[in-house]
Amino acid sequence: MDAQLMRELEELGGEIRPASLRDCDEIIIDQPGFSARIALWGGHLVSFVPAEQTDWLFQSDNEGVETRFGRRHFGVPVCWPWFGANQDDDDLPAHGLARYFRWQLVEVGRFKNGDVKLVIRLASEDHPLLEEMWPYAFELRQVFRLGEGFSINFSAANLSDQAMPVSEALHTYFRVGDNQAARVSGLDGVTYIDKFNEGKQSTQEGDVTPCEELDRVYINSPEQVRLHDPKLGRTLLIESQGARSTVLWNPGEALAKLRADMEEGDQSHFVCVETANALANQYQIAAGDMHQLRLTVRAESLD
Questions:
Q1: Whether residue 148 lies in the annotated active site
Q2: Would you tell me which of 73, 218, 225, 286 could form a disulfide with 186, CB atoms 3.0–4.6 Å apart?
Q3: Of 44, 171, 228, 291, which one is the catalytic site residue?
Q4: What domain range includes position 104?
Q5: Does 171 participate in catalysis according to the annotation?
């Protein structure tokens, strides 16, 4: 890694450490107001812990199958360039390719207000396997802004000479004290596709609670939702830009027990609230064009 980048990272109270995830490094940031971890494998924001608070993000202790496309449940995985199963090739992994390759740290610094800035990059030209699996040249970047809360500005540039189809999500695992008591507000009146009910279309009535046995894609959803967590005594405001879908996921106890990539009881301690463009909200990036997807999370007083 570039020596200048390493010096700049050290000035932010950061360092690169070996990690268990595919034997790939993690970026560790330790500030007076928060600590954070970013896994270069898959470009995951793994952890964000404000001072004297519980981690806002969930991490399962189950490491899953140790293959390139083995899943793990933690932090903010990037689902790109498709969300869910690939519709054209069953042999391709679920939720795209970006979460299964090593990203590169390319910039370190601060924003004008003092928030920490980290930029990581994944380019198809750097990975021959990506070029074999996906017929479009691309460059992805994530700009992490870390301070009182966090934001992820995810950009995808189409470097090929044809339009590129995309469905996507920032598949955020939010930690909760008890998914039975947690609730998601802000989706009242929004149409959703219920994957746990044979893809039936329904309309949300009121808040979503309890947050269990959920696999819902909310179409044309608002830019703000809130995750209320009475057990941990906090409400997280989740804002999005460039996203037209919100996905809620929690497997529930029965399905979680059938999964080899989750520990017993994991489902009780997370709710996935995903910033997405999925199903009817998938789109195309024109040749030479770029699309940005932004997630911002901050805490509010519990109401």
A1: no
A2: 225
A3: 171
A4: 3-300
A5: yes
